[in-house]
Amino acid sequence: xxxxxxxxxxxxxxxxxxxxxxxxxxxxxxxxxxxxxxxxxxxxxxxxxxxxxxxxxxxxxxxxxxxxxxxxxxxxxxxxxxxxxxxxxxxxxxxxxxxxxxxxxxxxxxxxxxxxxxxxxxxxxxxxxxxxxxxxxxxxxxxxxxxxxxxxxxxxxxxxxxxxxxxxxxxxxxxxxxxxxxxxxxxxxxxxxxxxxxxxxxxxxxxxxxxxxxxxxxxxxxxxxxxxxxxxxxxxxxxxxxxxxxxxxxxxx
Length: 253
Ligand SMILES: C[S@@+](CC[C@H](N)C(=O)[O-])C[C@H]1O[C@@H](n2cnc3c(N)ncnc32)[C@H](O)[C@@H]1O
Fold this sequence. Notes:
alpha/beta; 12 helices; binds S-adenosylmethionine
């Protein structure tokens, strides 16, 4: 308890210990609970690759995760259902937070759109929130087939199973012109140490490193996002930093 009080999880009172507002988010029944996200972060599958960095430095595997599991993260996820259940629950935690902040801070980005393709939204928490908030919008949510297999859509929301890599290359051709409201919206980390809150930047750096150790991926800084959109021939983009450690990016054709 001493270490938990010192690190700010509990406050010690005369009659015992109480959770603070932030640590209440670890409780299962809090509406914005991040319990599954915390359990996923400290799951052995996520933690073990960090201890294998030195082995990985000396072999040809593209990621420490592969050095241990001999398969990539998504193959592991497909095979180990107890882990994938936890992973999907963790992503649902994250999505609830995103929805809460997005509807408060970035609603304008969706106003006036008549259709939306939502890619990689897990079980569709963000998509449901969008169609409920914008009754004139039709939404198609695409994720891996096993994720959408049991998702029930509605008149306004379709679930499609497939691989995003087949459609992302074509999305620039498929979106309407800027005058007709066409754009790509990305919700992701923009590495940025200019904000006053250093805790946010540290969290971004850890996520960046986790991406690297587990998925052979990375988070991008402002310049890298600009390069990505430039190479994909988008004319300009706008970054709104309002979603915790993530931002909402709008890229225009
Ligand atoms: C890190 S999760 C993000 C989930 C959600 N957007 C969020 O932030 O909470 C990545 C999502 O991409 C999906 N995914 C992974 N590979 C995919 C692929 N090839 N095609 C479509 N979706 C994929 C996963 O199933 C998962 O739902």
